[in-house]
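Show me a record, fold above all:
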Amino acid sequence: MHSCIADAAVSSPDRATAAALAGASLLPAPAVGWAELVPHRPFLVQFARRRLQDPALAEDLVHDVFEAVATGRASFGGRSALRSWLVAILRHKIVDLVRQRAGHDSLDSLDSDDDEGPAPLLECPQPRPDEVAEQRERLRRTLARIAALPPTLRRTLEMRALHDASSAEICRELQISEQNLFVRLHRARKALAS
């Protein structure tokens, strides 16, 4: 097996190119076992949760990534770090899910030859102007409330929520323990909720 690019992460038109690249490789792709995958699971789940805002769905997508690797639908070529490769597959799965939920995958349901009923209504994925105004007002109020937080809580929340920094990065930069980080985040969120 000389595949260097994950089938799960490659769109259909690129499969021929991927196959050609895989055939040109002289080295076999290194096998990736569960022992190598498991340490990356917490990072991948956290990555998916931040993008999807749904813990159960994040767990499912990470499981799908591991299943693709375990069943051989995706094979590691060794051209990047294992975590980078896993994140790339996960990103593609997230994009596919978002497209599927938004109805951009296909319009097959609209191609019916049945002229007996009314034409199906297409919903616009864009928010209405009044919804945009509401969102902007909510964002303005939230940012004002964040700015009003005590400096230690504000900095911690900004790093986590606005800059998407990891726990290790925040602890290192603020020189605090992980426990202190969670306490600060809890207090900041509680202050914003009240």
